[in-house]
Structures are given as C-alpha cells and as structure tokens.
Design goal:
The protein has helices at about 1-15, 20-35, 40-50, 55-70, 75-85, 90-105, 110-125, 130-145, 155-160, 165-195, 205-230, 235-255, 260-295, 295-305, 310-325, 330-345, 355-370, 375-385, 390-410, 415-420. It has about 425 residues and is mainly α. The protein has one domain. The protein is globular. The relative contact order is 0.15.
C-alpha cells in the first residue's frame, strides 16, 4: 500500500508539471520526515552525489561536444565521409550515419550529435531529392548513437547510480554501437533499393577526397585517443574527458574557428546541461535514500523475481515498461527512477549488470525518438523547421531496428561482453 501511495504521489507531481529533480527531492524529503528519519540525510545525500570524481567527466564531455559543434566539425566529418560514399546507392544516407557514429565517439551526447550532423546533412539530403520524412527520421535516429558509442554520458550516470565500472560499460558499448550503425546503413540500402529518385553527387578527384579526409582526420584521431586511452588503461574516463576537451579546444583554435563569444556560448550551454543532470541525480539520490529506508526497492525486486522467474520474461516486461515510460519521461529520468528497482533483480536472474547497461541505453535511444517527449525529435524539428509529427513518422523503422538490436543482444550477449570481459562471440 505504501508503495502504491508513493508511486501515485510521484505521478501526481510529474503530471502537475513539477520538474523531475524537484519532484524526486521533495517527495524523498517528505518520506524521510514522515518515517521519522533525520532530515540531515538530505544534505548528506546531496553531498555524496556531487562528491564523485567520475561525474567530472560529464561537463568536460559536454563542453568538448559543444565546442566542436560550434566549430563546424560536423561539416568536416560529413564532407570527408561523403567524398568516399556519396556515389554509392544511398551514399548520402550512409555518409550521414557514419558521420553520426564518428561524432558520437567524441561527444557522448545524442543531442549534440543530432544537432551537429543534422545541421549539415538535412539540407544536403533534401537538395539531392531524398524523401523528407526519411531524412528527418534518419537524423533523429542517427543522433542516438551518441549515447551508445563511447564516451557516453548516460553510461557514466548508469555507472555512478549502480556502482558498475564505467570503463567496462564504455567498452561494452563499442560493438553494439558499430552493429547498430550497420543496421541503420542496412535501412539506407533498402531505401535506396526502392528506387527513390535522388541525384548523385559528382565524383570528386582523388586529391580533393584526400583533402576532405585530411581536414576531418584530427577529429578521428581525437576519438581514437579518447576511446583508445580508456581501453588501454592509460587514462580513466574522467582523465579521457579532460584530454578530449583539451584536444577539441586545440583543434578548434588551430582551425581558426573559435573566438571568445563562441567559447562563452559553449561553456554556458554545457553548464546549463550539467546543472540539469546533476539536479536530477541529486533528487534521485534523496528519493532513492528514502525508498531504500522504506525497503521499497527490495520489496519490488522480490515481486519482480516472483513474477518473472526467467531472464527472458523479465526483460520482455522491462522492455514494455520502458517503451511506455519513454513516451512520457526523458532518458535520464528513466534511468535514475528505474535502476534502484531493477538493479537488485539482475544478479539473481543471472543478468550481467554491464550487459544490462547496454540494453538499457538502447531502450533510452528508443525513448529519444518516440513522441511526445523524445528529445531528438525536438532537436531535428528545430533544425529542419518541421512538425513534430513529421519527424516522428520518419523514426518508426529505426525504433523497430533498435528493438531488433535488443533481441540480438539477448540472443548473443557476447556482442556487449566480448570487449570488456573477453566473452567469446561464438
């Protein structure tokens, strides 16, 4: 009964429009006081949230992505990939997906990826005759690669919330990120095979293609250094974020694309996003502390284990719940609300928590492109000056592909576990 009342109170606050961070913190504080616990737990919970070295990676990765976004790095990446793939069937669509994957490896943010590549790719694809709805859906979905391919900000938050190793989480996302990119390319090839009338870019001379590649090469090297440094154990994720930020700043300066107003805008946007993330984390920490003292996560985990006694049934139920939640909550809120409940049930069911982190991020990707609150839908809507319905109609094939990816991940868990733990692929 207590659990139902708490859930009802939280839903009421959210329906009234109270921001998620404040709804969680306020309800958690009320529960602490009503349960006779010391109110001092509130500031202690807030302090323990922010006193975490790993979280320093969040603002640094955001700042790196915003600097590169404003420095026009997306244009360089897109032009370089297009120079080699543009004349293939569906070549511009393939170039868009590959560009999203490359930028994902230096941003960690789906919004930054969608905005950066979308600004460049949408006008070019529309000018070449690609179907508008398909183009908008492609960019909205391609942007989601930013939170699967490391460095990934949601994976950092997942690691902090669940106390899982963030390096393992980053490595676990590499192969699924590449495979999902390949599935998106498959959609592009199917679309091209339908025979849609598009004009093909002219063949570029080899010297020009090499020049375009050389212009984008510093960003590719930066991505390899950041991800490779983490994989090699040379740097921690936080140190890698500092290297990435410094490298991105240097690249933008050497290209002559960074002045003080641009840097200031990047810092202000990164600070605003960081504050939002940290407030949600702080509110979730207070709420999580309160419901743990009431033993709600433990009780709910026992109910889940009693109801769904196999990994397949458990994951099927969680998938349905997350698809529904994704229509009404943004990604970070889903993560901090659900993980205290789901995480205790993983090991008894034999589900690897690192594998589950990759699965959860893919489900978050679905939430980013499903209406009415999919964040990437709003980003592409703003970039393309389109209606939300138009963007949403273009994303449904990609949502289906993401669900196919979830099934593949379940059937072949080594897709996620091979890099971090050496689990054989076959």
């Amino acid at each position: 009964m207590t659990t139902l009342l708490i859930v009802a109170a939280l839903l009421l606050l959210l329906l009234l429009g109270v921001p998620v961070a404040f709804a969680l913190a306020a309800l958690g504080f009320v529960l602490l006081v009503a349960g006779g616990f010391s109110p001092l737990m509130l500031p202690q919970a807030l302090h323990s949230t922010f006193d975490n070295f790993l979280l320093l990676a969040v603002p640094l990765f955001l700042l790196m992505g915003n600097i590169l976004l404003r420095a026009g790095i997306g244009r360089d990446l897109f032009d370089a990939v297009q120079a080699w793939t543009g004349r293939l069937p569906g070549g511009l669509a393939i170039a868009t997906i590959v560009s999203c994957a490359l930028f994902s490896a230096i941003s960690g943010s789906s919004v930054a990826t969608a905005a950066t590549i979308g600004t460049v790719a949408i006008p070019e694809m529309l000018r070449r005759g690609y179907e508008r709805r398909y183009v908008l859906g492609l960019l909205a979905a391609g942007g989601t690669l930013g939170i699967l391919i490391p460095p990934s900000i949601p994976m950092i938050i997942y690691g902090v919330v669940t106390e899982e190793n963030i390096v393992d989480l980053f490595l676990a996302g590499v192969v699924p990120g590449i495979l999902l990119s390949g599935l998106f390319v498959a959609i592009a090839l199917v679309q091209a095979a339908r025979g849609a009338a598009v004009s093909v870019p002219p063949r570029l001379p080899l010297a020009q293609r090499l020049r375009e590649t050389a212009r984008a090469l510093p960003m590719v090297v930066l991505a390899v250094v950041v991800v490779g440094g983490i994989y090699a154990g040379a740097v921690t994720p936080t140190e890698a974020s500092a290297v990435g930020f410094g490298g991105g700043l240097l690249i933008a300066l050497l290209m002559g694309r960074l002045d003080f107003p641009t840097l200031r805008a990047a810092v202000e946007e990164s600070a605003a996003t960081t504050v939002t993330i940290f407030l949600v984390l702080a509110g979730a920490k207070v709420f999580g502390k309160a419901i743990t003292l009431y033993r709600i996560p433990q009780d709910l985990s026992e109910v889940l284990l009693a109801t769904f006694d196999t990994p397949a049934s458990f994951l099927a139920a969680v998938t349905v719940v997350l698809l529904v939640m994704g229509c009404f909550l943004e990604a970070l809120s889903m993560l901090v609300l659900m993980m205290p409940i789901l995480h205790p049930a993983l090991l008894p069911l034999g589900i690897d928590p690192v594998w589950f982190g990759v699965y959860f991020v893919i489900m978050i990707e679905c939430a980013l492109i499903t209406p009415p609150v999919g964040l990437n839908l709003f980003v592409i809507q703003a970039v393309a000056r389109a209606s939300l319905a138009e963007v949403a109609r273009g994303t449904w094939p990609f949502v289906l592909v993401m669900l196919v990816m979830v099934v593949l991940l379940y059937l072949f868990p080594a897709i996620a576990l091979w890099l971090p733990f050496g689990v054989p692929l076959f």
